[in-house]
Amino acid sequence: MSNLLAIIEKELRSYFASPIAYVVLTVFLILSGYFFTQILGVFIQRSMMMAVQSQQFGGGPPPAMDIPSLVIRNFFGIVSTIILFMLPMITMASFADEKRRGTMELLLTSPITNVDLILGKFLAAILFFKIMLLPTLIYHGFLFIYSSPKMTLGPVFSGYVGLILLGGALISLGIFISTLTENQIVSASVTFGAVLILWVIDLAARSAGPVLQTILGYISILNHFDDFSKGVMDTSSIVVYLSFIFLGLFLTYRSLESLRWRS
Amino acid sequence: MIEVDNLTKRYGDTKAVDKVSFQVGKGEILGFLGPNGAGKTTTMRILTCFLPASEGTARVAGFDVFDHPMEVKRRIGYLPEHPPVYDEMTVNSYLNFVAKIKGISPGEREKSVQDVKEKVRIKEYGNQLIGHMSKGFKQRVGLAQALIHDPEVLILDEPTVGLDPNQIKEVRDLIKSLSGSHTIILSTHILPEVSMTCERVVIISNGKIAAVDTPENLTRQQQGTQQIYIEAKGALLEIQNKIKTVEGVLDIESKPLGEKEVSQFIIETELKKDLRSTIARSIIEGGFEILELHSMKMSLEDVFTQITTQEEVRN
What we know:
The structure holds 2 protein chains of 2 kinds. The two termini of chain A are 29 Å apart. Chain A is an all-alpha fold. Chain A has one domain. Chain A is elongated. The mean pLDDT of chain A is 89. Chain A has 12 helices and no strands. Helix content of chain A is 81%, strand content 0%. Chain B is of the alpha/beta class. Chain B folds into 2 domains: 2-221, P-loop containing nucleotide triphosphate hydrolases (Rossmann fold), CATH 3.40.50.300; 224-296, Alpha-Beta Plaits. In chain B, the strands form 3 sheets. Chain B has a 6-stranded mixed β-sheet, sandwiched between helices. A 4-stranded antiparallel β-sheet of chain B has the order 2-1-4-5, covered by helices on one side. In chain B, strands 12-13-11-14 form a 4-stranded antiparallel β-sheet, with helices on one face. In chain B, a hairpin with a 5-residue loop joins strand 12 (249-256) and strand 13. Chains A and B meet through helix 1 and helix 5 of A and helix 2 and helix 3 of B.
């Protein structure tokens, strides 16, 4: 346990010692903030148009439009796409840089287990991801204050749970790929490639025939995110994410073991 | 303390380490000598549980490196060829991190960090970023990392590479001061280092052990004959003839030096006899003058070259 904490602390330290962390944080906040205001603007405009239309053509009060939940759903949709491309930058150094610097020898000859090492790196990345998401809570705060009737917080909560599960899946994938190389750039590129394939699977699922659509829908980790942004926490989706995370970490474990045998 | 038995490590078809066996007693300093690529680092990596062996066993403090890696890791301090430091950390935070993962209890952590800094003499640099330090200081931080949990066994891979002569001396003195309480294996390709610090030497070449002995014995054994160097004044040929009359002289190399009538002679004699006084007497009796006379010892360099090149010829 204390080993695990030591690794987490060390990882967080090295995140914030490198400029990449700040770049990722800044770019993420700019993008998410920009898209939030855009989405909010679009839906406010649309609801005003509907109100004007119903006044012009008469016929009672304008149809109710749940702006907050539409904004939240679209916002989480966009954020989930942004993190596809930002999280590989967080995990690219994970093991690759330890190998390049020769500190892998310190870690692997110290009395800590590989499980501690991998979990420490994984949890540190998740923590960083949470720090990344933290400021976006403010957006929902504004939405909550100015919404009337008061919006429900369920979708916000489930959206963040979904983001962290999706992020966890991407992080475990990124950490696994970082064990395969000494080069951060290679590590990041391969992770981008893998993420791109996940993305394409999701797109293909949308346009495929009925049978293929169901199959691809199950495989696509992005597809499972849709439920969360709608405020639905489906057990099967949670299981899919947790299995993906477990698979990623298990592959990392095997890769570390094989590293010893191969090198 | 360390028992290595028939250790073999294969990378594909090539054997990096081939049936290596040796023992190191408690408190001993063992030098690991060999040209680059001889298998020194691989052997050390197997001992520190970083790599598994293909065949054979290695035990550290009674624990097999394959079956009980955690017990072994707890008892070993390892300084790899490149000090395993994080440039973005300060010396203090780095040593604290190492103390944690080496399993030092929270109560003793502060003290062991202070003590080890004192030992490697980086006490004033606690708050400095490791990335801003020179190679010599990084090496000391690396050494501190290996020493922090006061391990029974220290494994140092070329600990003086890249240091300036003063730092080399400091590191050597430090290593010497650690012997007795620690069992140390240190690898190097710098020969004087071995004769200065180590009690026993393993010469390794092409993955095989070529020789194991004390530095003194190695020099003695490899020397088949004894050589005497003489500078004398007089006619070269006459002196040479005079020397030849001494019994036990095997060979003479001579050449005139720049000065008038001064020549140098390198005389090879049988190993067991000391012929220095006999030869000197015969030269003086012949009416010549001796300007210089000393016996030539084979250096460890010669031994090393001889052993490692013999190996290549044998293969």
